[in-house]
Specification:
Length: about 300
């Protein structure tokens, strides 16, 4: 057997050691900044631009070589959207250095091609050995967010106006229905009262609370088998307006009734004055052969 020279595990698996000098970390930081999607600017103590990453170049339309040594404000933040000048002394971003405080907020920048665009920013002082030596600015284009926010606000406003119009129309309809002298009632698909006007409560001799959300046949069980049940069912099945006369037992009078069906409800309109030409006669005369009448619908 041929003997092999012994080698330690560390010789086989030793990893390369990273450089620790300043140049390595500078290059590493530059690589990170160049690959960041957030626009980064660095200003020196004179408020002049000394660095901007590719994302910042894309955002502003300017190359780093065009802005180095120039006041960033004078290039991309000099004018307000309404056309008025924006003095550097009023710019919150440029107050970070003298005040030594971080600032966050929203501003509007000017692109190289002249169009305005909204941004969200964070400007932070750069400190070294207790001294403020510059400012780093992180900037994000929020154009799409503002457009979405505006669209949502417009949608909310349209919804508010539509709701306001609907409420006004409902109030107007309510006022009209309450002002008419005919009894008006609305039933849902389960024959529950959903609306009655004051004339209806007078005719039916029931309060609104006794009627709303209660079934017609529970409130007036004696109407089961009457011409009202027959004609109401006919109107629903045939989906057409029906006018008929019915005998109202509690009033011992004949009344005219018109019903207007829809896919979701049934509306009933009855003059509160009885039919003068009809003689009074017992309610039982109207209840004959109900089963046959209902099956014929």
């Amino acid at each position: 057997m041929t003997s092999q020279p012994f080698r330690s595990l560390s010789e086989h698996q030793r990893l390369p050691q990273p450089k620790t000098d300043t140049q390595y970390y500078k290059q590493y930081l530059e690589t990170v900044c160049n690959n960041a999607t957030l626009a980064l600017f660095v200003m020196d103590e004179r408020q002049q631009c000394v660095y901007m990453n590719p994302a910042a170049e894309k955002l502003t339309g300017y190359a780093l070589s065009e802005l180095q040594g120039r006041a960033l404000h004078d290039v991309i933040h000099h004018t307000r959207p309404d056309g008025r000048p924006y003095p550097l002394c009023e710019c919150p971003i440029d107050q970070v250095f003298p005040q030594n405080n971080q600032e966050q907020g929203e501003e509007v920048f000017v692109h190289r091609d002249g169009h305005f665009y909204p941004v969200a920013y964070t400007a932070s002082p750069i400190r070294e050995a207790g001294q403020t030596i510059g400012t780093v600015i992180e900037v994000r284009d929020i154009t799409q967010e503002k457009l979405s926010e505006k669209a949502q606000q417009e949608a909310n406003e349209r919804e508010r106006l539509l709701r306001q119009e609907a409420e006004a129309a409902k109030a107007q309809t309510e006022a009209v229905l309450q002002s008419i002298t005919d009894a008006f009632a609305v039933f849902d698909h389960d024959w529950r009262y959903t609306y009655v006007n004051s004339a209806a409560t007078e005719l039916l001799q029931r309060s609104e609370a006794q009627l709303i959300r209660n079934r017609l046949w529970d409130v007036f069980p004696d109407l089961l088998g009457s011409s009202i049940e027959i004609e109401y069912h006919r109107a629903i099945q045939e989906q057409r307006t029906i006018e008929f006369e019915f005998f109202y037992p509690s009033r011992n009078r004949w009344y005219l009734n018109r019903v207007y069906p829809s896919a979701t409800e049934l509306r009933s309109l009855s003059p509160i004055s009885p039919i003068a030409s009809k003689p009074n006669k017992p309610y039982v005369t109207v209840r004959r052969d109900f089963a046959a009448s209902l099956s014929a619908i």
